[in-house]
Amino acid sequence: MIVVRSVLLVSSHSFANEVATMIEAAGCRLMRAKTFQTAKQQLTKAKDLLVTELKLGEFNGLQLALRSLAAGIPAIVIADSCFEREVEQLGAVWMSPTSAASGELTSLITRLLQGTPSEASGYLGSGGHDPAVTLTTSFEVVDPSTWH
Questions:
Q1: Percent of the chain, pLDDT > 90?
Q2: Is the pTM of this model over 0.90?
Q3: Are 25 and 52 in contact (CB under 8 A)?
Q4: Distances (CA, A) of 90 to 87, 101, 114
Q5: CA 122 – CA 92 distance, rounded (Å)
Q6: Which of 86, 134, 142, 147 is 20–30 Å from 65 (CA)?
Q7: What is the reported pLDDT for 9?
Q8: What are 28-47's pLDDT values in tens digits?
Q9: Structure confidence at residue 74 (pLDDT)
Q10: C-alpha angle 132-67-81 in degrees, rounded to nearest 5
Q11: d(Cα 136, Cα 68) in Å, to the nearest integer?
Q12: Contact 19, 11 (CB under 8 A)
């Protein structure tokens, strides 16, 4: 028996059609939403994977990924590199728009749907890092009167 997996794509960007083509190339049934609200309603139906862009009007893809992950649905968030850490801290997979548009998304979707998230976790694409590395942040106290 062939199992067709369903992927919810949430995007209003121009590259949404390219990403949709890659999802279908991975052998998945594509469902689309352009807004957070529409996607939230569609997540209540059983999905196998969420692929979302970061900017979704007054909400964002991180909020949607959090809902998805809470429901046991893996999520890929397509965003600029400055959001990589936030995406990964949620437990989702971060991918740059350039990598998503280059075709790397198809192999990532395949790996996630085959149940090998450990291989796909973190960043997929050029300049990636080892997801086992623990990131730490240090803060410096700055006197606001010195700001110019």
A1: 34
A2: no
A3: no
A4: 5, 23, 21
A5: 8
A6: 134
A7: 93
A8: 889 999 888 899 889 878 78
A9: 93
A10: 45
A11: 26
A12: yes
Answer whether residue 88 shows pLDDT above 90.
yes
Six token digits for residue 104: 């790397």
CB distance 45 to 67 below 8 Å: no
User: Residue 5 is which amino acid?
Assistant: R
Query: Taking a C-beta distance cutoff of 8 angstroms, is the pair 59, 47 a contact?
Result: no
Query: 77 pairs with which residues across the strands?
Result: 52, 94
Residue by residue, what is the 3-state secondary structure of the chain?
A: CCCCCEEEEECCCCCHHHHHHHHHHCCCEEEEECCHHHHHHHHCCCCCEEEEECEECCEEHHHHHHHHHHCCCCEEEECCHHHHHHHHHHCCEEECHHHHHCCHHHHHHHHHHCCCHHHHCCCCCCCCCCCCCCCCCCCCCCCHHHCC
Per-residue confidence band for 124, with pLDDT thresholds at 50, 70 and 90: very low
Q: Within 13 Å of residue 119, how many CA atoms lie on the same side as its CB?
A: 10
Please give the class, per CATH, of domain 6-146: alpha beta
